[in-house]
Amino acid sequence: MSVIIAILVLGFLIFVHELGHFMVAKWVGIHVFEFSLGFGPQLLGYQKDKESTKYALRILPLGGFVRMAGMDADETEEGVDPAANFNDKPLKSRFAVISAGSVMNFLAAVLLFIITFSAIGVPAASETNVIGEVLADSPAVTAGLQSGDRIVSINETSTPTWTTVAESIQESGENNIHVVVERGEERLDFTVTPHYEPDAKAYQIGVAQQLLWEKQGLFAAIKLGLIQSFQLSKLVLDGFVAMIAGQLSADDVAGPVGITVAIGNAAAGGAGSLMIFTALLAINLALLNLLPIPALDGSKLVFLLIEGVRGRPGAPEKEGFVNLIGFAMLMLVFILVTYNDIARIITGG
Q: Mind listing the pLDDT tens digit for each residue in 155-214?
């Protein structure tokens, strides 16, 4: 099920991205040969006539494309008005077409946040003593604690709030603790050994608080949606900078397999968690495509900026060669992160 959800989420993000390119291309008068989701052999297709745009769904759901007249030297054919070629349009029109995909992804993230915050709510940690989540490979899951358990006491000390739960765990250090929980109509006893978590600088057993979703009014949701989108954009950019500076390794980057697992985990948290994670992916996709990496939209924007400074376009064969090299590099990165994803799953990392 998580694979199906992941395909739907990624398909939505790809569709929104390519729709941005497509809509602006049509708006500025560029002829579009094909609007496609996926790569490889065609599964489904529709074309009204030879002069109209072909809409296709292809077998590999790893991207999409909008094939426009005149974007490459061989992208022309009889019956297409030369004025409808991409490379014959003004610089500002071409810049708008290329950047529209990322703009649409960012707007999709804002809209997802607004819908989530107004219809479902803003997630906030609850102070109740009910376990919201038991983390994998933690002392709590080893002992048998479950999500939904109400921790009524630790070492015979009442724990009516989450704060008292955390304080009781800290007081025990690495010593075994006696935990009493209510599970439905039952009262159960468990022995758990906390471990010290250096990042949190605290003793933990691997349980998380419940999340309560507080609905917002429309105007409050719009404000929060915009704030959240820009804050996450800054965090994503900080991550890119850290990766370029060598502060993040390849092990910290997720590929398609890792993203599929993460989407499945988000879906397990409910519709709100899935929509928020989808918005985060949309922001990642928007900013990633703007990086000046060959074969990405950012590289094409750089070539357009150079053209604007020089007053004339560069040699198409040089741009094509740079994009070919960039595409090969992206494929190598894709293989590397996919290998790391699978290795993490196998080793439980």
A: 888 989 999 988 888 888 878 889 899 988 889 888 888 888 877 778 888 888 888 888
Q: Is 18 a catalytic residue?
A: yes
d(CA 127, CA 165): 10
Q: List, for residues 222-235, the tens digit of each pLDDT value.
A: 999 999 999 999 88
Q: What percent of the chain has pLDDT over 90?
A: 28
Catalytic site residue from 18, 185, 214, 319? 18
The predicted model scores a pTM of 0.79
